[in-house]
Amino acid sequence: MTTASGARVAHHSRSARPARDGAAASRIAAIDIGSNSIRQIVADVTPEGVITVVDEMKAAPRLGADIERTGVLGSQAMQRAAEAIGRMATLARQLGAHRIDAVATSAVRDATNSGEFVARVKQEAGLQVRVIDGADEARLSYLSALAHFDLGVGRTVVMDIGGGSLELAMAADGVLDNLVSLPFGALRLTERYLSGGATRKALRRLRRDVRDGLRDVLPRRDWRGAQIIGSGGTFANLAGLHLARRGMLTARNVHATSVPRVDVEHILDVLAAMPSDERRGVAGLNPERADIIVAGLAVAAEVLARVEARDVNVSRYGIREGLLLQAARVVPTIADPGEARERSVREFAERCHLELPHSSQVQRLALRLFDMLGARLGCAPDERATLADAALLHDVGYHINYDRHHKHSYHLIVHAELLGIAPAEQIVIANVARYHRGGPPRKKHRNFSALDAPLRDKIKRLSAILRVADGFDRGHVGAVGEIKVRWMQRALRITPVSTKGASPLRLELWGAHRKSQLLSELAGVPVEIVGTDGSVLSSDDAGDDDE
User: Fold this and answer.
1) Which of 234, 308, 387, 492 has its CA 20 to 30 A from that of 28?
2) CA neighbor of 38 nearest in space, from 322, 234, 319
């Protein structure tokens, strides 16, 4: 996504239509006027649903403050909001947006003086605000989720927690089943229940009432075990808190972060026990949301409990992206699991002008080694996909230059827009690519040492495999057709088989040998690279790979 500086980074959504070369993009601005904050995105959207962000702007006038008690929008809050929207409209026009869509949600639709606010915005910004109902809000959130997650299989509940309301979109195999809006927004519930602090008694009352409200609209028998996707500020901050606890403050974004339900409850307990001022200093939490985060997390926890979900997948995209797609008349396709990830990785590789034959060869050899060695090294089955992507992308740093290209690969992958990959896994992929050459992972490396122990161990395992696989294609000619592995008591023997008959594979043997020390360290025995003539190169004699 873009920063306020106007840096342009493309992210891609799915479309029902095939891509057309040179398709004209429409520059569109979308403004989401919520109860707590107002957000704008300006982006170029192609007919195929490719969204290239041009700029973003945010304000937090808390338009919905006190509406629970008074039933009206406060005059000062309306003025702050109208002025913020005026600035957003000015920016959008200066950037050449030919269309500006502004929608207002819970606070404005619930206020008895909503017409006055709409008139103020018209005068201040020259925009006609659309006040949408809860079902439309839920539909936009679902449209955005459909464009950025694989929802083609199983049941899914998309929940968006705003300042004033909770929206639920329920779908089976990508087809919408029901849209629900409930008055369970983070700001509204904070004012209703937690104005005197997040005491245990107050939090129990809040959660009980949310639980009762969910009972009739979210039948457990129909939605038990559904995939849960959460969008909105509550979930962005939940993901930030979760990543910070794992030492991943370097994560570029929070999209696709999977937060276990038990962690949601734990984070909720920790934050509820703190005074609001103390919460402001918690790593991963936006200080501006410190006073309402507890109510938002309580709602999230109750939805997860209602459907007995194991975790929640966080979306960084929401109503604004749904508005962009709607304005461009793009209907995302319903995708099966894995489709978004595979396409996103391939497109990123192509944008970096990757040498695909070499990368594909290294990927093939790495997966072959994983299948034969992974279990004994302690690899989990799902690490295979992580290794596959790291192997394919390990040389994207050539896009910058050859020198230190492994370090360039790390930075490019960390900052890439990769759909279907959680931030934690993206950081692992980046690190594994980083360590395909040069020195092995060390505690003195900041990109490695800040991570928690399980992630560091995973990076070492997969890097060890990738280093040897890359060595077996040192000449970038695909000379190795097969690899044979024999794990003996005194050594791990790896024998390459040539694609060219009796070729001695001298360069490939040398390449794998000099990168075998990390694998030897993890295996606990020397790694022996065996030539077709019976010659043996041992990791004990390899030295450091300082290539």
Assistant:
1) 234
2) 319
* Cα(245)–Cα(234) distance, integer angstroms: 17
How far apart CA 23 and CA 6 sit, in angstroms, is 23
CA atoms of 496 and 365, how far apart (whole Å)? 10
Which residues does 445 contact at the CB level (< 8 Å), separation at least 6? none
Q: Quote the CA–CA distance of 72 and 54 in Å, as a whole number.
A: 35
CA 511 to chain centre: 35
| Domains, the chain, ordered by start | 9-132 (3.30.420.40), 150-314 (3.30.420.150), 339-541 (1.10.3210.10)
Q: How far is it, in rounded angstroms, from Cα 227 to Cα 219?
A: 15
Looking at beta carbons, which pairs linking 193-198 to residues 24 or more positions away fall under 8 Å? 193/295, 194/294, 194/295, 197/275, 197/276, 198/271, 198/272, 198/273, 198/294
**CA–CA distance from 265 to each of 117, 268, 326, 409 (Å)?**
38, 5, 35, 36
pLDDT digits (tens, 9 = 90+) for 141-188: 999 998 888 888 899 999 999 999 999 999 999 888 999 999 999 999
How far apart (Å, rounded) are the C-alpha atoms in residues 22 and 339? 23
Q: Tell me: the pLDDT tens digits for 387-431?
A: 999 999 999 998 887 778 999 999 999 888 787 788 889 999 999
pLDDT score of 21 more than 50 = no
Which are the contacts of 75, defined by CB distance < 8 A and separation ≥ 6? none
